[in-house]
Design a protein that fits this description.
heterodimer, A: 117 residues, mainly beta, 7-stranded mixed beta sheet, 4-stranded antiparallel beta sheet, 54% strand, globular, B: 114 residues, 6-stranded mixed beta sheet, 59% strand
Amino acid sequence: DTAVSQTPKYLVTQMGNDKSIKCEQNLGHDTMYWYKQDSKKFLKIMFSYNNKELIINETVPNRFSPKSPDKAHLNLHINSLELGDSAVYFCASSQGRWAGPPGNTIYFGEGSWLTVV
Amino acid sequence: GEDVEQSLFLSVREGDSSVINCTYTDSSSTYLYWYKQEPGAGLQLLTYIFSNMDMKQDQRLTVLLNKKDKHLSLRIADTQTGDSAIYFCAERGILTGGGNKLTFGTGTQLKVEL
């Protein structure tokens, strides 16, 4: 069973469209994250939610809106897509907000490849 | 602020040792990590080291930490083709409002040649 699952895995869309990426974790974790990996492989945190409460919001355009209907899900909605949004988006989760081993390993999903044309 | 730097590429022959280096800026980092990303996959935790340690060994992996210079390295002994991947170092920083986050380095692409 996949611990952190994201859908879709691949997404190609036109500029200006609105799209969502869904994430679900079946680990019973309280904290979930979205990371963005650009074409140069730089990996940056975007958001973090703990028990549906936003705890990290890095400098991300407000076209990006995370939504956490429950603590097992953290979806990423992107409005008015731009070429620069093309990247791989990783969802992750950990037991608590004090993220990182030992005792609180972050588990990553397999990534969603977004291409904006 | 946090900043984590790595060299972008490393190429080694199978059977040789690989050394991947990382420098970081946040002196309050309590833990430092190494993650591996295989093609088309997410990040997988390889190993970590507590900031008051100098060295940690885990089978073929050796982590060295020079806290004074804020330098972290990962040595892979007897490198195999299956070790070809991108390796990320990461530091754990504390958030003002409680909790923490991981800041990742730029990643090092390791290529193992026969």
